[in-house]
Amino acid sequence: MLAEHYGLIKNVHISLALLSGCLFMLRGLWGLLVYRRTLLQLRLNRLSYVIDTCLLLAALLLLASLSFALLAASWLQAKLVLLLCYVLFGALAFRVQYAIVLRWLAYFAALICYMGMYYSARWHQPFAGVFASAI
What we know:
Elements: H1 6-33, H2 39-65, H3 74-93, H4 100-123
Helix pairs in contact: 1-2, 1-4, 3-4
């Protein structure tokens, strides 16, 4: 049943991933450049949580529609490792108790992980685009 809706689920997943990345960039810049919390920022944070939850649900639906066969794909494994790094660096970037330099470094590291996830998913190659210039 899910297999017949694969295209729709994939497009929703891609759209949510792009929206999530844009919101992360906006929230990160706002948090690093503006040092006080506002109501709009708190609402954007909540919206980001909703979008990320829907993104995870769409990813799980994609895996379920393919009978979890994609876990054997090296590009998906790379994407999952980069996702873990993205979440960890993003969490570090939003913690106000750390030095601003460390937060900026974590923010840029999270953006690099996000780009790596995008290219790995786009080209179906592990770490595609990240190490291509080194070869």
